[in-house]
Amino acid sequence: MATTAQLFEEPFDADEYIERLAWRTPGGGSKGGAEAFDPKRLLDEFTNHIEELKQLDEKIQRKVEKLEHQCHREAKEFAHKVQDLQRSNQVAFQHFQELDEHISYVATKVCHLGDQLEGVNTPRQRAVEAQRLMTYFNEFLDGDLRSDVFNNPEKIKEAADIIQKLHLIAQELPFDRFAGVKAKIASKYHDLERQLIQEFTAAQRRGEIGRMREVAAVLLHFKGYAHCVDVYIKQCQEGAYLRNDVFEDTAALCQRVNKQVGEVFSSPETVMAKLIQNIFENKLQAHVREKLDETRHSDVEQYLKNLYDLYTKTTALATKLTEFNLGSDKHTFLSKLIKSIFSSYLESYINMEREYLRSRGALILQRYYDSKNHQKRPIGTGIQDLKERIRQRTNLPLGPSIDTHGETFLSPELVVNLLQETRHAFERCHRLSEPSDLPKNAFSIFLLLVEHLCVEHIDYALEIGLAAIPSSDAKNANLYFLDVVQQANSIFHLFDKQFNDQLMPLISSSPKLAECLHKKKEVIEQMEVKLDTGIDRTLNCMAGQMKHILSTEQKKTDFRPEDENNVMIQCTTACSKVCVYVSRQVEHVRKSMDGKNVDTVLTELGVRFHRLIHEHLQQYSYSSMGGMLAICDVAEYRRCAKDFRVPLVLQLFDTLHALCNLLVVAPDNLKQVCSGEQLTNLDRNLLHAFVQLRVDYRSARLGRHFS
């Protein structure tokens, strides 16, 4: 059986179990091993082993039954024990309830007895206290203070308690009978009060927090307690303001005193609030008045800077002070203190701000024009203005209204100064204006910026620039208006940036936003009208200059050479000079404009350039060789047109180049060329007009191709 038990090793596998049993049987191995395989012997072994397993199973079954019986017996015993414990617990709980009821009964009796004892003891204590006070009162009545409590300095606390009570009693007595004793009690009351305050002050100087707390507790019931607090506040400020920065000194003082106040006084928040109020109403107010009053009338710029700086530092200090316990509504308390200091200055702030900006802006403008030795001319009046209007509406060669000698009268430095002043004004306005007045005040500052920068400077420069533009037939004219355009655009970008960065946050949620946007739009539209007018007249001048070059440099013999066999095929002198001039003007436009304005202006210039060349070519007649020269000129013009980088302009010159081919094509091929891709959509009269420019038009009877 032991051998059989060894075969039941975990994990159990039936096949493995049979194999091991067969392997242990002599002659039972699958390969025979040392002995030959003996099936009979293996069968006997299996039969015996099965009998052993049956016996083992019976033995194990008996053991299981025995254990189950034992388990049932122990379960019953445990259940009996649990029932016994439950009964014991129930008895204990009943005893506990009885004990609790008994304790409650005894406690009720004790409380009742205590109330009875207190009811007896309280009148007795009051009687004793009354007798003691009557004794002391008699001493005051006799005028002889014999008690040690009034004569021993170490018992000043006890004496203060007595005299405070006697003082209350004396106030109820009739004056005619007890005038003397009331005066003596009052005198002693004030004397003790004075001694206590002196003791508190001395303890404060020595830094004895415990003694200060004791004396403050005694003085709490005296009328002089407020005076004690005042003395404490005054004394704690001694030596606190040694640096130049009163705001940093105040913050450091409050930080240091805050902890001490909590240890000394029973109502520290009241004492801290009174300390801060004292500092604001005395130290800070005097400092602000000194800084502002000395510059209010003598130096407005410095006054505004000082006002902004002082108000900013005061509000920052108030923010720091909110970390202390100052009562339930400390923010309102601090706001009232700040208002009490600055109210008189803030009421007149915006008027002084506007007046300063108005005078400062005028001064900046005047200094600039003085540096240019320029006397500002009134716009819209006088003979010069009449001349300008006539020149704008006609082509009369009146010449420019004024000669600016290339000066644009726009100064980046002046603009930066104006914007800087306005930026500071917006910052001050944001800090110093009431929330309800902020949008209105910011709008008034914006109007001053518009007046000085947009009207007095940019608009004036545009007017001067317009007046300085020469007429379209002027010779060798210098065109400076594009420089004015360039600088005006740059300046307006700065103006727009300040509008978005500085002004918008101040007015974004108010009705003033619509007014500001309308004013800005109005200014932009006025400037755009003048810019468009100036650019149009400048383009006219450019076209006039090109026309002048062509009229002076182009000869009739250029396209009808006397000796056609000895002609170099190249562009004419007039063409070269015009292309050089146009390329220079295109580059000038690119430097002066930005964004889509570049393409718009170059498109207009290119169209006028094409129109001029088209009309110019129709003034001449062309021989066969002259036609080749004209094609060379147009090819050069087309190459110049590529610099415009405008598809329309290049297309126009491509078409013009195709038209010039009509000047040289053989008569028999004329109809075929007119039907080409670039000319098929053109008006037949235009094609005919170009063919008529040929010298051989009549002799070759070319007109029949258009009949």
UniProtKB/TrEMBL annotation:
* Record flagged with keyword Transport: yes
Q: Which PANTHER family does the entry link to?
A: EXOCYST COMPLEX COMPONENT 5, SEC10
What Pfam families does the record tag this protein with? Sec10_HB (PF07393), Sec10_N (PF20667)
Taxonomically, the superkingdom here is Eukaryota
Q: Outline the extent of the Exocyst complex component Sec10-like alpha-helical bundle domain.
A: 158-705
Give the UniProt keywords, A-Z: Coiled coil, Exocytosis, Transport
One record GO biological process: Golgi to plasma membrane transport
Q: Which InterPro entries match?
A: Sec10-like, Sec10_HB, Sec10_N
Family listed: Belongs to the SEC10 family.
* Taxon lineage: Eukaryota, Metazoa, Chordata, Craniata, Vertebrata
Its GO CC terms are:
exocyst
Query: Which residues belong to any copy of the Exocyst complex component Sec10 N-terminal domain?
Result: 39-148
Source organism: Iconisemion striatum
**What gene does the UniProt entry assign to this protein?**
EXOC5
User: Where do the coiled-coil regions begin and end?
Assistant: 43-77
What is this protein called in UniProt? Exocyst complex component 5
